[in-house]
């Protein structure tokens, strides 16, 4: 199981490396693109960054599973997060440094402006970021809730197992008590039988002695 988890973790890391390499290449080409193509390229890069974040989350889950199963915790996800932070920083710098219009600068740097289009673009950008944060928070909440349900289910099974064990122990104690009473009764009857046999033997001895005595007389 640890080998399968390690293979999956390696595959995820390879996908992440290939994806981030493509992102880095696209960021490097961004300053040389025409103005109309830059917005499309930036959206494509952001989508790839989201895919990279999902791969990192999957790697984190696999690392947790490996740690629970006794596997070696590699912490590749931590290095991948650092690499993602660097790429996001490079993307922001590229957009700021090579923006061809005041709208992009306003949306990225948060400069105050009286242009309604700039205000709308900035608000839209914030709304999209908030939506992505909410989606990630919802996914984490769902995963936590599922883990909580699994833990509660395991605790319930353990409780049932303990209760069944207690019931069997009570039944065993009751059986031992009954066996002890039966054994005590058998020992009492054995003693009574011994006493009766002893009395009968003594009586027979007395009768034989009397018969012999009177026979000689």
Count of β-strands: 0
**What multimeric state do the chains show?**
single chain
Mean pLDDT: 77
The separation of the N and C termini measures: 102 Å
Protein architecture, described:
This protein is mainly α. The chain has helices spanning 2-29, 35-68, 76-97, 102-109, 116-216. Mean pLDDT is 77; it is low at 100-109.
Name the features.
single chain, 217 residues, mainly alpha, 89% helix
Quick recap:
By secondary structure, the chain is mostly helical. The chain is built from five helices and no strands.
What is this structure's SSE topology?
Blueprint: H1 2-29, H2 35-68, H3 76-97, H4 102-109, H5 116-216
